[in-house]
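Proteins fold reproducibly. Consider a sample protein:
=====
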Amino acid sequence: MKEKILLIQTAFLGDLILTTPLFRAVKKKFPDSSLTVIVNKGTESVLEANPWIDEILPLDKKSVKSSLLRFWRFASDLRKRNFTVCLSPHFSFRSSLLAWSSGAPIRIGYRTAGFSFLLTEKKSRPILGPHEVDKLLSLLYSEEESKAIDRRPELYWKEESVSGIRNVLKSWKLEKGGYILMTPSSVWETKRMPAEKFREVGIALSEKTGMPVVLAGGKGDLDLCEEVGKGFALNLAGKTSLPEMSYLTAGAALLVTNDSSPIHFASAFDIPTLAVFGATVPDFGYTPLATRSFISEIEGLYCRPCGIHGGKVCPEKHFRCMLEQDPNRIVREALRLISR
C-alpha cells in the first residue's frame, strides 16, 4: 500500500532545516509514499525544490492561536486527505491535536509532547546529549539503524529565486568561497554576542584574510548589522529571502554566528562554522554538522544553561557567558578553520 505521510514541523526555522534529513529518511524508508509537510507560515520557501517533499502546507500559527474556528477548519481539511501515517516532531499540544485530527491510524511523536495521549506511538527524547537530527530520526529508526543515515541537512532553491542575490554578489565582485559571512543576531537576546565583539572579530578577519565580510539577518537586524559592519562590511540584513540566504551561505568561506539558524544553513553546504554559544549549551544538540567547526563558549559557568532557548535578559544579571567571550581567540580559531 502506498503510504500517505503527514509530517508536522511548525517550530523555528533552524528546527525546520534540521528536519530535512528526516524528510529524506522518510522517503527512503517508504519509497512509494507521498509526503506532506506542515510548516509555520513564512518558513515554507526554505524547503522549495526539496525533492523529498510532495506538498507543503503553511500554517499561520498566530491565526489559529487566536481563533479556534480557524484551527478546526485547518484540522478538518487534514482529515479529508486520508493520511495513513503522521509524524509529529513538534512538542505543542496543537501539533498533537493536528496529528489526531489527521485521522492517520499511525501517529508518532514524543512522549513529552503536549497531549501526547493522542499519539499511537510515543518516543523518548532526551533534552541533553544526542544531536537534534538524531532525536528526529529516532521517530522512525532505532539508534543502530540511524548510524547508517546521512545526518546532514540539505537545502535547495529554484534558480529564479536566487537571481537577485546572484546579481548582488556579482556587482560586489564576491565569488564563491571568497567572502566571510557573519550573522550577529538571534531571536533571543541572551544568545547574542555583543555587537562590539562581533565588530572586532569582523575587522580582524577582514584584515588578516583579505576577504570581504558580508552581514546577514532579518529586517529587524538591520541596525545591529550596521553597528557591527559600519565602514568595512556589506550589510545585507533584511535584503535576502530564505532561498537567497541559502545561496549566500553556500558561497561563503566561513560563517561566524551565534547559536541560531545560520548554523544549520551552513551545515547543509558543509561551510566551516564558528558558533558562539552563550545562554545555551552544545549538549542541547544544535551544534554545527559541518566538517570543520568550532564552538566558542565560556565553560564552567554555574548558570549555563539558563533555559532551552535562552531569554531576553540574563537572569543572573552578569551575562558572563557572552561578555567574557574573547574576540582574539575567536579570530584565531576562525583562521584555523579557513586554513585547513
User: Anything to note?
Assistant: The chain has 14 helices and twelve strands. The domain at 164-339 is CATH 3.40.50.2000 (Rossmann fold). The longest strand covers residues 34-40. The two ends are 49 Å apart (CA to CA).
